[in-house]
Amino acid sequence: MDTNLTRHLQCIPAQPEAPGLPARLSREVLTFAAIGVVSTAAYALLYVALRSVMDAVPANAAALVITAIGNTEANRRFTFDVRGRGSMVRDQFGGLVALAVALAITTASVNLLAALVPGAPRILELGVLVTANALATIARFVLLRTWIAGARRPLPAHAAATQPKE
Predict the structure, then answer these.
(1) Radius of gyration, alpha carbons of the chain
(2) Which pLDDT score is estimated for 158?
(3) In this prediction, what percent of the chain has a pLDDT beyond 90?
(4) Could you write out the three-class secondary structure of the chain?
(5) Helices 56-74 + 23-51 axis angle, to 10
(6) What is the pTM (predicted TM-score) of this model?
(7) N or C: which end of the chain has fewer CB within 10 A?
């Protein structure tokens, strides 16, 4: 291989880094976003299927609950690099907290739409819910990052040095 090419490849960081963000956070954001796209697509398909047999609020709730479990597990494993069953129940509980926030945001959105635009077309309803889900995703990232990954992060070197030894 050309030595110039080898030298250039060595300069590329192993993990993508967004401007102004540490590499680990950049990787987490990118992975979380990719999982979010897949989860949102699954949510939208489930919502459309369920909406044909039930009202908007229960269809939204059911689609969110069904996708939240897989979303939390995928983020646990791929975004925050947590494996094993040791903290799975605790982590899924954190996912349920994030689900409650998402459910509150999306339910308020669909109820507001119904009040402002009675009989709104399903495509508008879905658009409002996907947008509300995008807002809820920001809250989900912060909650899951704190809940799942926060407890496992080592203290910075300067903080660890001041901690009492056991």
Answers:
(1) 20
(2) 42
(3) 43
(4) CCHHHHHHHHHCCCCCCCCCCCHHHHHHHHHHHHHHHHHHHHHHHHHHHHHCCCCHHHHHHHHHHHHHHHHHHHHHHHHCCCCCCCCHHHHHHHHHHHHHHHHHHHHHHHHHHHHHCCCCCHHHHHHHHHHHHHHHHHHHHHHHHHHHHHHHCCCCHHHHHHCCCC
(5) 150
(6) 0.71
(7) C
